[in-house]
Amino acid sequence: MNNKEFITNLSQRTNMKAADTQAMVNTILSVMTDNFMEGNSVQLPNFGVFEVKKKLERIMVSPTTGQRMLVPPKLTLSFKPNPVWKDRIKNGGNE
């Protein structure tokens, strides 16, 4: 599903105009992004948790040259789904 299909589907379900729905989605994503930039996690009830995690620095070996390189630490975004959703997906959508 692409963005246009998502906005169309959501606007039909909420009985809102597509432009208003797009603005609402953009606002939600903006608020989530602001929280991620501050290092906060975002929990969506009955869906899951988005967390910012810090990956430590590590030594990597280039497979082509065999040279060892230091990979600096970095922040990554991870998602942990609600256990109910995780089980539903494991069972192929069937409860």
Q: What portion of residues is helical?
A: 40-55%
Q: Shape, please?
A: elongated
Give the distance, in angstroms, between the N- and C-terminal Cα atoms: 23 Å
Beta-strand content estimate: 25-35%
How many strand elements?
Answer: 5
Strand order of the largest sheet: 1-2-5
The protein's oligomeric status is single chain
Q: What does this 3D model show about the protein?
A:
The protein is an alpha+beta fold and 95 residues long. 42% of the residues lie in helices and 28% in strands. The chain has 3 helices and 5 strands, in the order ααβββββα. It starts with a helix and ends in a 5-residue tail after the last helix.
Detail the topology: elements first, then pairings:
Elements: H1 3-14, H2 18-37, E1 42-44, E2 48-55, E3 58-61, E4 68-71, E5 74-81, H3 83-90
Antiparallel strand pairs: 1-2, 2-5, 3-4
Helix pairs in contact: 1-2
Summarize the structure.
The protein has helices spanning 3-14, 18-37, 83-90, and strands at residues 42-44, 48-55, 58-61, 68-71, 74-81. The protein is of the alpha+beta class. A hairpin with a 6-residue loop joins strand 3 (58-61) and strand 4.
